[in-house]
Amino acid sequence: QVQLVESGGGLVQPGGSLRLSCATTGFTFSSYAMRWYRQAPGKERELVAAHNGEGGITIYASSVKGRFTISRDNAKNTVYLQMNSLKPEDTAVYYCNAQRVLRGYWGQGTQVTVSS
Q1: What residues contact 42, with CB distance under 8 A and at least 6 apart?
Q2: Which residue of 20, 70, 78, 116 sits 20 to 30 Å from the alpha carbon of 48, by its own alpha carbon?
Q3: What are phi and psi of 113, to 5 degrees?
Q4: d(C-alpha 15, C-alpha 115), whole Å
Q5: CA terminus-to-terminus distance, the chain
Q6: Which residues are CB-neighbours of 40 under 8 A, at least 6 positions away?
Q7: Distances 95 to 55, 69, 87, 116 between C-alpha atoms, Å
Q8: Are 90 and 82 in contact (CB under 8 A)?
């Protein structure tokens, strides 16, 4: 059974940091590209960061580049998103995604709220 379980979200003040985790089971983690998306109220889901798994290639949305870092631990089947210098506009539900060609899996999401 495939499962992606996000954790680490919460309420943080502007300028603060959070580290999201996505623990996975049920598929060959190392063979999948792992991505973080987010969706704010009234907006479409957007790609935040991606890690291709092999070669360590990462990409970031321009809005988070230099502040967010995606990493993965293939031994633990887990992907992380370190978020620093958080801004109110980072407020959203953050989703973990595993993708390989046409096969993809999603987590249930974790809420991140940046507010003073």
Answers
A1: none
A2: 116
A3: -125, 125
A4: 10
A5: 40
A6: 89, 91, 92, 93
A7: 23, 15, 18, 23
A8: no
Please tell me whether residue 76 adopts helix, strand or coil conformation.
coil
Which regions of the chain does DSSP assign to beta strands (E)? 3-7, 10-12, 18-25, 33-39, 46-51, 58-60, 68-73, 78-83, 92-100, 103-106, 110-114
Buried/exposed code over 67-77 (b: 16+ C-beta within 10 A; e: otherwise) = ebbbebeeeeb
Angstrom distance (rounded) from CA 107 to CA 20: 12
Give the angle 78-58-14 at the CA atoms, nearest 5°. 80
CB 20 within 8 A of CB 81: yes
pLDDT in tens, the chain (116 residues): 999 999 999 999 999 999 999 999 999 999 999 999 999 999 999 999 999 877 789 999 999 999 999 999 999 999 999 999 999 999 999 999 999 988 999 999 999 999 99
